[in-house]
Amino acid sequence: MKRIAVRNLRLCTKDCLCLYVCPYGATDTEDSIIDASKCTGCGICADACPSGAISMVPEDYPPQQVKTDEVKNAIEKLAYSRTLAEAKARRAASESGKDGLRRLMKAIEGSSRLVAEDLMREGRYMLPQSSNALDLTSALLDDPPSKDFPEESAREILSRIRCNDRKESGGSYRCSVCFTEFTADEGETPICPMCHASGKDLETI
Amino acid sequence: MKYICSVCGYVYDEEAEKIPFASLPDDWVCPMCRAPKNLFVPEESEAREPADEPQEAEEYHDSRKLSPGVLAAIFSNLARGAEKQYRAKEAEAFTAIAAYFTRHSDSGDSSSPEAIRALLSDDLSRGYPDLRKKAAAAGDRGAARVLVWGEKVTRMASSLLERYEKEGEAFLAGTSVWLCTVCGFIYIGDNPPGICPVCKVPSWKFTRIE
Ligand code: SF4
Ligand code: SF4
Ligand SMILES: [Zn+2]
Ligand SMILES: [Zn+2]
Question: How many CB atoms lie within 10 A of CB B80?
Fold first, then answer.
């Protein structure tokens, strides 16, 4: 599995051993972020770093564990009730004139969100690269729940993240919004290069 | 006889302590996690099964459509995932979508401490036992892990609300509220605990609620 080096800027002491050892100059950058396009994943820098600041992270992630429908359903029910508690606590904190109650409600708001996040991570939305996460994002972009939905962010996600458990077959597409024809590589989410349409706005040709 | 804290697992051994558990004052709390006395269970019954079969709780949730609140949690969690993979741009985009759904989440009619506690009690009496049963049937240990942390954290939150209903502002005055940023455990005290009694991370993972 291909790996690349990433530097944790908080741990890095700028001792610069990694600059000396990288055969491709990938560690020598103006913003301290290792250049992923030069890194071959040899791992020499991670071994040399005295601060444990460099991790070798996989470029691709394996598919998530499959959940049964029963487990998924029980998880979603709990997450629903926890996020309802979160919203109530948020409102209570903002409306409370009492300092103790306000702080307790803020804690319950934060706690409920953490518990709900953990539930949904287990309920099949663990990996940004999973088809669940990307399909959800693209369904929201196709049919935004309201006008203020941050469509730009959804497009950004779809164009930057490659799905790990479904191979887009790649090929040629025609955009039904602006009629641009374009091709997408295998594994890449097709997005119109002119108007950024995606999903059901594209036909394969 | 031994009594076990259902939040952190601390064992109160009557023989060693020389004071019967029942004689401890009502405001006695767990020395580890400050859970109240009523969250302790006698040792034998620790693995107690819920008295009744958990009822199917279909009436309180239609899972075909994810609520804005759940979508907010999904996207803020994906933002964490992207951050752990050092993908700052993607994390930012997921965070923007999470913030959108947080703004649109619905808090229902009442937001009183009683209404919130009713919701948590329902999770503890039905939601968690139901998930426990389904996870065991499927041999799903990932789901079992979420359950163990979430249930303890929820128990603590619910008991703090109960305490607030009884004692009001008094027990929070002049002290701090701490939140474990990993598991969501809430702790009341001047300083955070040395390690989180639920998920065992060190004290610097706690944040003080301002
Ligand atoms: S070797 Fe490690 S500590 Fe030194 S500059 Fe490189 S990443 Fe930073
Ligand atoms: S893993 Fe190898 S190629 Fe990549 S930055 Fe480190 S030393 Fe350079
Ligand atoms: Zn305890
Ligand atoms: Zn914790």
Answer: 17
